[in-house]
Amino acid sequence: MLKKVSSVAIILMFLLVSIGVVMASDKGNARKGKYLYRKNCRTCHIEDGSAKALSPISKTQAEWKKVFDDVSALECKDEWAKLSEKDKVDMYAHLWGHAFDSPSPAKCN
Question: Could you give the 3-state DSSP secondary structure of residue 44?
């Protein structure tokens, strides 16, 4: 009986952890997003760059959501088209998570 209860507990724990991993993956990987932002966007979006200086704290969370909801309005939309959907979700996780009004705004780019 004890083995049966232990087995059920282990299976339930495995299922809960699996569900948590799947749910977390939908939110994006902010750490990877930071890397992607620096690799793909930061080169132009710096002071004296070819585009307006931009960092996570340049916008509020609502403003970042608006940007990612419609990237067709951006001047760099052709560059965005080269990114996978997963990469966009990861960058969004980084920028939104460190926005001006977030609980942990970015201290540096």
Answer: coil
Q: Which domain holds residue 41?
A: 29-97
Other C-beta atoms lying within 10 Å of the C-beta of residue 32: 16
- Looking at per-residue pLDDT, the higher value among 75 and 33 belongs to 33
Determine the pLDDT at residue 18: 40
Residue 60 lies inside a defined structural domain of this protein = yes
> What does each C-alpha distance from 106 to 22, 38, 49, 77, 79 come to in angstroms?
26, 13, 20, 24, 24
The 10 Å Cβ neighbour count of residue 87 is 20
Q: Torsion angle of alpha carbons 31, 33, 38, 40, nearest 10°? A: 150
Would you mind telling me the total number of residues written for the chain in this entry?
A: 109
- pTM reported for the whole predicted model: 0.71
- Nearest Cα residue to 54 out of 42, 36, 69, 63: 42
The reply to whether 6 falls in a domain is no
Could you say which DSSP state residue 71 is in? G
**What's the total number of domains in the chain?**
1
